[in-house]
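Subject: sequence -> structure tokens, single chain

Hey, anyone have a minute? Need the predicted structure for the following. Not urgent.
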Amino acid sequence: MSILDPVPELPASVDARQPSAARAYDYFLGGSHNFAADREFADQVLAIAPSIPAVTRLNRSFLRRAVRYCLDQGIRQFLDLGSGIPTVGNTHQVAESAGVTARVVYVDNEPVAYHHAQHVLAGSETTTIIQADMRDLPAVLDHPDTRRLLDFSQPVGLLVVGVLLYFEDPQPAELIRAYRQRLAPGSLIAVSTLTDEHASPALRSEMEMLRGAYEAAGEPVYPRDHAEILSWFDGLDLVDPGLVTLPEWHTEDPNELDDVARPLGYGAVARLP
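Reply:
Had a minute. Here:
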């Protein structure tokens, strides 16, 4: 089964007329797991904020490098919160491309992401997805599939990439603090999120219109500044180079450093001491 195959047998509860941020993200990445309403919404976003597809690509590139770093540090199990639709380049694929067997639990509350990932991952003994709200820790951490695949007495790679922008304060800090209490020393936490702190006037204007579009769609987004995001890592050991724009973190493609969307995202990886 190709990861680009159509979404199979979606439940009747999925309203294809209501756009979804997760499915719009898939569209921005060039995926096929989206509906006409998602594409219409995404095209509206593109018209007012043309840099957004670049942000999604930079975010996915950061995820790939963060997972590779975790693998290099000996991490062999991952909890990927708000993982979204399994477009090319997800966590388990990064591990496979590195020739490493890793256990991965994806978590997403979006029905399309959940049902398509279930189909794609059917038969896998090392990777699964659970449908849960990442804010409900018992639903995530005590889920039978989580308990089956992840050993929390050993280091885990916790991935919170590109999802905290949808949560109001103080939820991001509280969520990271709550999850880290369940992780073993040596675990690594990767975080990326949206910012407009150093955006040019033109990019800042795009961001304002973007926020309006997402709020109108019922999924408001919240850009943060460096100081606030850095506070989420209190008590953790930041991996060099610390909290930086997405392309700056363990850069592989120097061209990304010149990307117009570079000022719109921060990312970091930190170790639980």
